């Protein structure tokens, strides 16, 4: 059953279009009373904000911004920030993108082409505890075999990871802890935690040791940027 209305006080809008970020921030302030909206243009910046601002209770993500190579990134965000309402606002009209985002655990998928009134209505439904799904998912074309998402080791490559995640994987294979990785990459430990979680999900492995073994077996460390 849907839960009672929640109150959003602090949000993050992650999108590489600054004008769209401003528009979303205005909607959140005017219609939902959000007092503070962080605006960022990449997934890495979004993870930094989430790690440094535990009061963020709403996060809106674009799927096409830098760093968003896989819906597994959203799964990692949901796992590491379970109390944050997470919604995709995307220009994509592909059913598979919706299914993969929902499989990652987001609370809604709102098309960018939506009118302001429809956007407010969709976010209102999410706030009431519903999961918002766009109407185009009711089209009748077949769902790809195998279901949404990735996560089977041996069926992914390092190209499935973002550049930052390849760096993190390289350092995992080198035996570094999250704290050491944070120092090496000049990141917060909370940000590193999300990247590590995303790496494990994308590779479909249960722990860091298995990720290190995957990297060594597949030559990933040689591909990681310096």
* Biggest beta sheet summary: 5 strands, parallel
- Helical stretch tally: 10
Rounded to the nearest angstrom, the distance between the terminal CA atoms is 48 Å
Strand portion: 5-15%
Structural description of this entry:
The chain contains 10 helices and 5 strands. The radius of gyration is 18 Å and the shape is globular. Helix 3 links the parallel strand 3 and strand 4. Helix 2 crosses helix 8. 46% of the residues lie in helices and 11% in strands. The longest helix is centred in the N-terminal third of the chain and has 15 residues. It starts with 9 loop residues before the first strand and ends with a helix. It is an alpha/beta fold and 226 residues long. Strands 2-1-3-4-5 form a 5-stranded parallel beta sheet, sandwiched between helices.
Short description:
The chain is 46% helix and 11% strand.
Q: What's the structural blueprint in terms of helices and strands?
A:
Blueprint: E1 10-14, H1 18-32, E2 36-40, H2 43-52, E3 58-61, H3 72-80, E4 85-90, H4 95-103, E5 108-111, H5 116-127, H6 163-173, H7 178-185, H8 189-203, H9 208-217, H10 220-223
Parallel strand pairs: 1-2, 1-3, 3-4, 4-5
Helix pairs in contact: 2-8, 3-8, 6-8, 6-9, 7-8
């Amino acid at each position: 059953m849907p839960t009672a209305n929640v109150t959003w006080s602090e949000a993050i809008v992650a999108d590489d279009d600054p004008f769209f970020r401003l528009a979303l921030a205005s909607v959140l302030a005017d219609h939902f009373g959000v007092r503070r909206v962080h605006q960022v243009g990449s997934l890495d910046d979004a993870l930094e904000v989430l790690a440094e601002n535990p009061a963020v209770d709403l996060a809106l993500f674009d799927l096409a911004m830098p760093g968003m190579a896989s819906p597994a990134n959203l799964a990692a965000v949901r796992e590491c920030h379970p109390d944050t309402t997470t919604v995709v606002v995307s220009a994509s009209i592909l059913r598979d993108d919706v299914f993969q985002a929902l499989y990652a655990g987001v609370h809604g998928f709102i098309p960018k082409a939506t009118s302001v009134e429809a956007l407010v209505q969709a976010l209102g439904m999410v706030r009431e505890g519903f999961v918002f799904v766009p109407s185009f998912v009711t089209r009748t074309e077949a769902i790809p075999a195998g279901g949404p998402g990735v996560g089977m080791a041996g069926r992914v490559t390092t190209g499935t990871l973002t550049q930052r995640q390849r760096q993190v994987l390289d350092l995992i294979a080198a035996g570094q802890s999250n704290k050491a990785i944070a120092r090496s990459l000049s990141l917060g430990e909370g940000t590193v935690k999300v990247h590590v979680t995303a790496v494990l999900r994308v590779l479909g492995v249960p722990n860091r040791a298995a990720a290190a073994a995957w990297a060594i077996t597949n030559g990933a460390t040689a591909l990681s940027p310096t």
